[in-house]
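> @MW can you paste both from yesterday?
MW: sure, first one:
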Amino acid sequence: MAPQTYTSIHLSKRPKTNIIPGETFEARNTRSYIPPVKIGEVMRGVAIGIIIASKSKSYPIGTHVTATAGWTEYAILKESDLQRVDIPKNGRITDVLGVLGMTGLTAYFGLLDIGKVRAGDFVVVSGAAGATGSIVGQIAKLKGAKVLGIAGSEEKVRWLKEELGFDDALCYKDEQFAAKFRGATKSAAKSSTSRSREQNHMLDSSSVEV
């Protein structure tokens, strides 16, 4: 049974520091797939939890689940809001918030369904040491692509090459970054195939002025 008091994080006011009206943000009349967090609402976020009280046959007490429960220690949720956590061998429950969750799905479908990467391709990953970028690079390697990662420190560069198996990685803060990037991508540009030229044509023809 949940305690009578518990901690939850609510949005109390909109941040204003260093925001210049009309310059920092630009108002656009576009719709979003999800509404903004309102003042007083629990901060939005995906969480892993354990069922401690339940009327559901599908989710009995003790079941590990994931849901958009927000930043709170306890939440009352509908059965339709929950997803059972199934951890593969050698996996950890926290992987559900990373490689087995939204981060992994973004990397997987973005690279394979949208990017359609395949063996022999040259893939450049910006933000390669981040949650999504690090997975993108590993999937690309598994598909037989050559991968160049871009990161913000030499420590991250070493991690990408030594731990994740990127073919190469560069630090964008390096004073020689532009020259090194040109050098690292020069061979890929020379060996571009008709497939890459076709993709570039498709991108050019679909671009619009905004």
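MW: second:
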Amino acid sequence: MSDPSPFNLIPCPSTSHLSIPAQTYLSQVQSEHACKVLATGAIVFSASRILLLQRAPGDTMPNRWETPGGAYDNDQTILHAVARELWEETMLVARSVGPMVGEGYTFKTRSGKMVRKLNFIVEVERRGGDGDGDGDGNFEVRLRPEEHQGSVWATKEEVRACKVRDVEIGFTSPEQEAVVLDAFAILKASTAA
């Protein structure tokens, strides 16, 4: 699966300072966080619903739910890493990356690596044509089965209830759940303005 490279991202003033390589960012925040790895999360809304992905049964944290994202991988910038991860996991094309949700958080992997994760609201491009969605007006998501087994578009109320229709939602971490709920607050503030 080839990336739509280079990603033609529309600049977002609130995240322009992150148009830098991950190592530059990590060296700038080294005194606060002892991390050598950076991960990114892409938060995609369709109207008032957020995209959540269910991890594959054979992956770490099997069957848990998260937003699209993953490790920085020799990308041009942090923002390009967000766009690449979103493309790889969902085949959705990022149009703009930002604003950032929260200040990010740090976690330890099973192998003991400290990872700093930054999360961003991402606007995606419509692909065009009548087949561009799930019938409910949401973007069409195409998953890689080795990484994810399912997707849902959830409202804030469904996230709080940890249930979308008949699907139970258990997040990969409390931090991931908090980021999702914080993203709804940013969405509400941006639509009220």
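> thanks! The beta strands are 37-46, 49-55, 65-66, 69-71, 94-108, 114-124, 148-154, 163-164, 167-168.
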